[in-house]
Specification:
Layout (H helix, E strand, L loop, with lengths): L2 H31 L4 H6 L11 H41 L5 H10 L9 H10 L7 H9 L6 H15 L2 H9 L4 H12 L1 H16 L3 H6 L8 H11 L4 H31 L6
Helix pairs in contact: 3-6, 3-7, 3-10, 3-12, 3-13, 7-10, 8-9, 10-13, 12-13
């Protein structure tokens, strides 16, 4: 290794180390503070102090558990809705012939070009007219449509149609010759071959739904219906300077996404790098 290469590698590793520290420091501070009382926090807010105050997590969970359950319900239903609708629609647009297929497809794809903030007022009026305000359906239906958050059915159809197109047509023809119905071809052939893409769509939908704050704060007014993003704001107001339970609540709220990232990173990358997603 030449001296110039050594300097280049040193600078790269230094910059990478700085970025890692800047990324992990807030997480470290949150987790460490979550097991302290205020005396320990003000005495040493960066270091580890004993004994650990695990009761902070009990107190935090007692307050945020309803918000957590609501977030799980909203996220689960919206993800299932997006996956079911988008896989069926993407298969039809990719493998079935019908009048107006391309026009209808591009009309749906055009929805991706619209920023979600532009559709908030029309969707709010629509939800209000259906008497769904201050209910979990006021979140689930717009999250599936994708009008107020990234993802949604339009984006999922765009991604999955590309994957269906990448599958050789001979496989579908062979299945039909063997007597498989169109639904059997879709379920037993199409779905297994695009499983990484479906996982990628589901992960993106989970991220956008779980973290949404703007639409949630605009449509929910009763604390019993709050999801985590807006519920944590209320929780913070109850523990403004009680740092231990406050940070314990934040830690519990972030755990699902941390576990999702840890368990599905390989699947997510596989779904993005396979040949079907060529943007």
């Amino acid at each position: 290794m030449t001296l110039r290469q050594w300097y280049t590698a040193t600078w790269r590793w230094t910059i990478l180390l700085i970025l890692i520290v800047l990324t992990l420091f807030p997480i470290w501070l949150m987790v460490v503070t979550s097991v302290k009382d205020n005396v320990q926090f003000y005495g040493d807010f960066l270091g580890i102090t004993l004994p650990f105050r695990w009761e902070n997590y009990t107190a935090a969970w007692g307050e945020i558990s309803p918000y957590f359950v609501n977030s799980v319900i909203v996220t689960s239903v919206s993800v299932v809705g997006v996956v079911v609708i988008s896989t069926l629609a993407a298969y039809a647009f990719a493998r079935l012939e019908f009048v107006g297929r391309e026009i209808l497809y591009y009309m749906i794809i055009a929805l991706i070009m619209l920023p979600g903030i532009l559709t908030m007022v029309p969707q709010f009026v629509l939800i209000k007219n259906f008497n769904l305000l201050d209910s979990l359906w006021a979140l689930i239906l717009p999250f599936i449509s994708g009008g107020v958050a990234s993802g949604g059915v339009a984006f999922a159809i765009f991604v999955l149609r590309s994957f269906f197109h990448s599958i050789p047509d001979e496989l579908f023809q062979a299945a039909r010759i063997d007597g498989a119905s169109e639904l059997q071809v879709f379920w037993h052939l199409g779905i297994p071959l695009i499983r990484p893409a479906i996982a990628t769509v589901a992960i993106l939908q989970i991220l956008s739904t779980w973290n949404d704050y703007i639409w949630t704060s605009a449509t929910l007014f009763t604390s019993s219906n709050y999801t985590l993003p807006i519920g944590l704001v209320s929780f913070q107001g109850n523990h403004t300077t009680d740092w231990g339970p406050l940070m314990a609540g934040y830690t519990l709220a972030s755990l699902p996404l941390v576990l999702l990232f840890a368990l599905t990173t390989r699947t997510f990358i596989e779904g993005l790098t396979q040949g079907g997603l060529k943007l």
